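Archive maintenance. Older records in this collection stored only the sequence; we are now back-filling the structure field for every entry so that each record is complete. The fields below show one back-filled record exactly as it appears after the update. Entries are processed alphabetically, and 2-hydroxychromene-2-carboxylate isomerase is next in the queue.

ARCHIVE ENTRY
Title: 2-hydroxychromene-2-carboxylate isomerase
Organism field: Flexivirga oryzae
Length field: 254
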Amino acid sequence: MSLIVYADFSSPECYVASRRADALAGEVEVDWRAVESRADLPVGGVPLSGEDRRALVARFSTLQASLLDGELLPWRVPAVAPKTEAAVSAWSELCGSRVAGEARRLLFELYWREGVDIGNPNVLRTPLTGPVLRSGVDADPLREAGYAVAVNRGPITGGAYRRVRAWRAEWLALDRPDLPVLLVDGATLTGLDAVRRLGKELVYRNVRIEPPVGDPRRYPRVDGRPPESWVSQIGGRWGNLYRLPDARALRSDA
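Back-filled structure field:
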């Protein structure tokens, strides 16, 4: 059995759908197609008004009331409604890779748990570097430097660009229904109905509701010392190798 899901990273309902897709991993093939539901937003997003915040609280209250036994929904009220183009681009580069599930989970959690502006490619770069380097994607900017989003918020590779266009065209052809959209068994379910159907799949398959997951930001294992030119681009935990004296050299001089 396979499921097709159209979703936006800034949607509470899509956030729950993603968490349920994580629990279904290994049982059901989920084809996650990210779309930007509010493409008209300015590049920097829009600050949430008091009314917007109250509306979010109401939506999450509805979602929390429908959670399954043992199901969690951690979240915080974000400050901004982001233009999710950059997040969609990042996902389009990593979907189908060995880190696809981790990348999707990270993008949702950056916004809904940490309040990060996922519409800013510069903000996304640091948390995404680890999973991008572990992804196995062969394109040079991803494989060598950990880039997943261009500075203009678009995808880096031609294949990812075509995926973004196709996903959006498919969603528009469905007449822009509420997200998430779930295509399953010939039916099209939208919004809360889609979220509930994913919940039914969890119950039917008797899967663990909150499976253990690793840190999606972790870097790939490196044997030996990476070259200084590479570290100058990536930084991360390797940066200290070139900021501090080699401890072994200090011991040998003693």
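Update note: Residues 222-254 form one domain. The chain has a mean pLDDT of 91.
Entry marked complete.
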